[in-house]
Design goal:
single chain, 8 helices, mainly alpha
Length: 183
């Protein structure tokens, strides 16, 4: 289980490999308080939605051979769970944390990559962690670009830096560097 979390958090990061949440990283790094609230909301909604979607798809949709309906059912479950958690957070924290696309893509990735309920929840949580682990790094990049005279909202610099980090982190995955290719 630890290997699954490490794999989907760092090696097969949702941001680097699939591009999930790449454009939203700059917006999450603006406020530390809002960052923690969003992290809590995302982890709760994604883990609950992935568990419910997995149970529903395995117990009903797969048995009835309606696997094409999995994304639609996932959307409905995610909307219900996210709305419930959003309502609780609006009442208690007096802030809005509405976001749908990242949660939906993480739940879909977890549904299609997992073989058990626990693995589905772990993959979805690891995907969300991979996104939110990069937020402090993006915040640092934004502050450095602001110190050099660039505007802190200059998204091009941030995305270019993330692309360079992605290439550095994934350079080992090139086939010509793999020794097994030449055997």
């Amino acid at each position: 289980m630890l290997l699954t979390v490490l794999f989907y958090t760092f090696l097969s990061s949702a941001v680097f490999i699939y591009g999930i949440g790449l454009s939203r990283l700059t917006f999450y790094s603006q406020s530390p308080r809002l960052y923690l609230i969003k992290l809590f909301k995302f982890l709760c909604s994604v883990s609950a939605s992935s568990a419910l979607s997995y149970l529903f798809s395995v117990n009903l949709l797969t048995k009835e051979q309606l696997t094409d309906m999995i994304p639609f059912v996932t959307v409905l479950i995610l909307i219900a769970v996210s709305s419930f958690i959003e309502t609780i957070l609006r009442l208690s924290a007096k802030t809005s944390t509405a976001e749908f696309a990242i949660s939906f893509l993480c739940v879909l990735l977890a549904l299609y990559e997992s073989t058990s309920l626990s693995e589905c929840v772990l993959i979805s949580v690891a995907c969300m962690l991979s996104i939110f682990i990069l937020v402090p790094a993006v915040n640092t990049i934004r502050k450095r670009s602001a110190a050099t005279g660039k505007t802190p909202r200059d998204i091009f610099i941030v995305l270019l830096t993330i692309a360079i980090i992605m290439m550095i982190a994934l350079w080992w995955n090139t086939s010509w560097l793999n020794g097994e290719v030449f055997k």
